[in-house]
Specification:
The protein is mainly alpha-helical and 334 residues long. 74% of the residues lie in helices and 0% in strands. The protein is globular and about 60 Å long.
Length: 334
């Protein structure tokens, strides 16, 4: 960034692209933390800053963060490979065959592409500045509070929208008809998400909602802002069903994580290859455990999203932010 001084930029680069210093055990612990927190709406990047701070570990290189993010991407592909295949197939066919563009899978593919643009732009223009925040736990604490606020407000708004749409003209809530349930089951998260109660009002997953989810994902470049929390919440705000918002959030993570991994691998390859066998083994350990924990975290969140709201994660973010402030004050005045 132009407003950053040259010497400060050099400091940032040296700090986050220095030789790999984490041992295998530390990499395993951080891999597990990444796998769980990437999909729970509690900010994985924030936790990868906070836990080394609590445990007095070296701040981890950014290429480790991106590597364990790639492991969670592999977990997403493992769980949703059918949907991913259908989306890719529909988009490719839709490019050449006009009739295929009416496919729900084609539409969701376009939504994902549109929603990925803000995060790509934010990563490109704010890269140096964001890297500097990864050594400032107090900033993470503030953004964790922002994540909690986003989760709570958007869940409250989404619940109100759902309640309003599912009320009959006499004010009573109606249940979905058998046809509605069948349509929702066959279409899955794709395209027209039906929250109809009286057959007249619907919430449709459209380009505007996808773009808002993309803005939420762009905000998550800041450590402490949860990517999954922002994307789920920004779609919930418009009344999208919680379970469908969760699925879209997972699928939306694929392009941005893949792109950041390739970009970071290109920038860090010489450093990783020159760091010795221990660094490679530590990265591998972090990757494996991030993948395993991420797989089970996805399954759990998909399960819980169908049954309960996500406000418990907002409470967790508040508690963690409070713990960071307390820990900082104790260190400062003792």
């Amino acid at each position: 960034m132009l407003y950053l001084k040259t010497d400060y930029k050099l400091f940032v680069k040296q700090k986050f692209y220095s030789l790999y210093k984490l041992n295998i055990l530390q990499s395993i612990v951080l891999g597990i933390i990444q796998g769980i927190t990437e999909f729970f709406p509690i900010s994985s990047s924030g936790h990868l800053v906070v836990f080394p701070y609590f445990l007095s570990w070296d701040y981890i290189p950014l290429y480790f963060t991106v590597t364990v993010h790639f492991a969670t991407l592999a977990a997403v592909v493992t769980v949703f490979y059918r949907e991913i295949y259908r989306i890719i197939k529909a988009v490719v066919l839709g490019i050449f065959v006009r009739e295929k563009r009416n496919s729900n899978y084609f539409k969701i593919g376009i939504f994902i592409i549109i929603a990925s643009i803000p995060a790509a732009a934010a990563g490109f223009f704010l890269d140096d500045y964001v890297e500097s925040l990864f050594s400032r736990p107090l900033i993470v604490a503030v953004f964790l509070l922002v994540t909690a606020l986003i989760l709570w407000i958007c869940e409250m708004r989404g619940t109100r929208v759902e309640t309003g749409l599912n009320k009959n003209p006499d004010g009573k809530c109606s249940s979905d008809t058998a046809a509605d349930k069948k349509q929702d089951k066959t279409s899955g998260l794709i395209g027209d998400i039906d929250l109809t109660g009286n057959g007249q009002k619907k919430v449709r997953f459209n380009l505007f909602i996808a773009a808002m989810a993309g803005i939420g994902q762009a905000l998550a470049i800041l450590p402490g802002i949860s990517r999954s929390g922002a994307t789920i919440s920004f779609t919930r705000f418009f009344g999208i069903k919680r379970s469908e918002a969760v699925k879209f959030s997972f699928l939306l993570s694929i392009p941005v994580i893949l792109g950041s991994f390739i970009y970071e691998l290109f920038r860090s390859y010489s450093i990783i290859s020159g760091s010795g066998q221990t660094a490679v083994l530590s990265l591998a350990a972090g990757f494996i455990f991030a993948y395993i924990s991420g797989f089970f975290a996805i399954r759990f969140l998909v399960y819980i999203a169908k049954r309960k709201n996500l406000n418990v994660f907002a409470v967790y973010c508040i508690c963690l932010a409070a713990a960071i402030f307390i820990f900082y004050l104790i260190n400062k005045f003792t």
